[in-house]
Structure formats: C-alpha cells, structure tokens
Amino acid sequence: MEIEKVDYSLQEIDLEEGRQIEELIARSQQPIKDPDDWLDSDIRQNIVMSSMAKVINWGRHYSTWPFGCGLACCAMEMVATASSRFDVTRFGMDVFRASPRQADLFIVSGTLTWKMAPAVKRLYDQMAEPKWVIAMGACAISGGTFAHSYSVVPGVNRIIPVDVYVPGCPPRPEALIYGVMMLHKKIDKRRFRQQD
Amino acid sequence: MTKPLIGQEVAKQIGEQVPQSVVESNESWILVKPESVLQVAQFLKNTPGLDFDYLTCLTGTDYLDYLEVVYILTSMKHNHSVVLKSRCNRENPEVPSVVSLWRGADYQEREVYDLLGIRFVGHPNLKRLFLWEGFQGHPLRRDYL
C-alpha cells in the first residue's frame, strides 16, 4: 500500500502551533471570573418548575407522624408494625408520637366504646391540620362482633371522619402498612387549596 | 397449688359462730343469706386457721329466679381457698358491701352493680364503672334487650 504523501513540512506545523499559542495569549489577557455569582442569586438558582400541590403533597405524605390510639388487641399489631420486624420506618411512616399535638395520622386500632368516644373525639380535635385517620380492624370500621352491643360505637366514623379502612381481626402488620400506602396515594391526590 | 377447702366443713364452723346464716353447702361452695354476708366474711377473714385475707374474685350472675353474688376467697397464709355465695331477689337486690374487709372489692362491686344492678349496702362510692351515668338498665341481666 502506498503511503499517502503529505503536502506540509515540519516547518509549517511549527508555524501553525506558534500561531495558535499567539492567539491563546491574545484571548487570555484577563483572568476568568470565579464561578461564585450564584451564591448571591438565591431565587434564580432555586426555582423548580412543578405544581405546588405535587411538591407539598410529596412532603406531607412522607412525614405522616402517626398517633397510635390503641384501644384493644389491634394495638398489638400496630406496635408490631412499628417495631423492628416490620419496621414502618423503611417506608417513611414513622415516627409514632405519644401526643396528638405532634401527629398527622390518627390510627384508631381497636374497639371504641361509647364511654371512650368523647376522649377519642377530643384527641382528634387536638391534632393540628392537615390530619388523617385510619380505622384499623373490624371494630374500628363497623363495631365488628360488637356492632349491636349496648356499649360499643358501631364504627369510629360515627365520631371522626375516616380516610382509610384497614379490615381484619386484627389486621396483620402488612395490612396496616398497605393501608398507610393507600393513605399516601390519597394525600398525593389532594389539591393544594382544598380545604376540608 | 391452692387447696380448696370442703364447703360443708367451713359451713359447720360458720354455723357455730354466725347461727342461722348458712342456707346450703356442698363440697364446692357455701350459700349464705344476703343479710349475713358481712358477718360471715368477717368470720372467714379474722378466724385463725381460716385467715382468708385475699379476695380473689367477686362476681354476679343472673339465674332468672334470683341474682347470685359469688366470692372466691383465698388465704395467703395457708394457701387454701373457699367459694362463698349469696342469693338475692331480682326486685330489690341488696347485699352488704365487703369493701371494709377487702379493698379489692371496690371496683368489682361497682362492676356488678353496673351490669347486674345489685346494690352493695355500705359501699363508699357505689356508681357505674363501665357504663356512663344516665345509662338505662343493667345489661348483663337476662331480660335486658
């Protein structure tokens, strides 16, 4: 194979190199400005184009701090859900609070009696908006076995509004976790300006 | 294991100290008149050899013809137990309170009063325990709808 014949000499290559260096020197008489002007421009750098509702709901649904209202045996499953084996922390469903003032999610787990009902209503009223309610177990949903009893509330939705119903007697911890996931979906659908 | 005392033997001792109080007795329990419950209970608690210092359980039952109060007594000292019963009529059920002997009877008598309507005479605070004030009737009675 015949070697292609080049039509420039080494002298010409050196001249081209020298010309490029001269040009670079000519362009580089002033130092380049340090890239720190963004430090002063908060607004320009921090705008994310999205819908307000989407962002707020995203924040809310990962910070539903539950208030465990353990009224009966369902409370054991709720405690198990929060404990190491099932560990709701994995899904951003903690932190269980002992005070309704610090909680967003009211988990009614167990049989609600009429004598207890005013206390539960008061605890719900003490929670700050926005707040959600999960009725856990057959008793909380409808009174369960005791629906026609003289002392049991036939469903906590007689007392407080319920967002998610988790059936079972008692529901397994997986069921409660699934219920909270359903609540996350529900929170995502909220309109920002919606008042309830 | 707690040893259950023979009812007839204890009833014999009761009969000597509190005459005309025992209605019936068998190997399981002793049935006494309601008006002498407090005296019998005092005897059972304070007699050396019996020393029933602990009230295990106090409960009531509705047998349609009458209401029955059951006391299960245990002696921590001798590790033996006995069952005491008393029957009262449905129309005006009254039994003396034993709170003065066993403080543990307080809530249990209130429960029986709440659910069966048996009045414990001498109870320091006889009001409903599980249900609220103003509740109509006593739900563990058989004729409660």
Structural class of chain B: alpha/beta
User: Low-confidence runs of chain B (pLDDT<50, min 5 residues)?
Assistant: none
H/E topology pattern of chain B: EHEEHEEEEHE
Order of helices and strands of chain A: HHHEHEHEHEH
Structural class of chain A: alpha/beta
Radius of gyration of chain A: 32 Å
- Please state the average pLDDT score of chain A: 84
User: How many helix segments of chain B?
Assistant: 3
Radius of gyration of chain B: 15 Å
Task: Explain what you see.
- The complex is a heterodimer of chains A (196) and B (145).
- Helix content of chain A is 38%, strand content 9%.
- Chain A is of the alpha/beta class.
- A four-stranded parallel beta sheet of chain A has the order 1-2-3-4.
- The model of chain A has no long low-confidence stretch (mean pLDDT 84).
- Chain B has helices spanning 7-17, 37-46, 105-116; strands at 3-4, 22-25, 30-32, 54-62, 67-75, 80-88, 94-96, 119-121.
- Chain B is α/β, with parallel strands linked by helices and 145 residues long.
- Chain B is 23% helix and 29% strand.
- In chain B, the strands form two sheets. In chain B, strands 1, 2, 3, 4, 5 and 6 form a six-stranded mixed beta sheet that branches. In chain B, strands 7-8 form a two-stranded parallel ribbon.
- The longest helix of chain B is centred in the C-terminal third of the chain and has 12 residues, at 105-116.
- Chain B starts with a strand and ends in a 24-residue tail after the last strand.
- The mean pLDDT of chain B is 91.
- The chains are: A alpha/beta (196), B alpha/beta (145).
- Chain A binds chain B through residues 113-115, 150-151, and chain B through 130-132, 135, 139, 144.
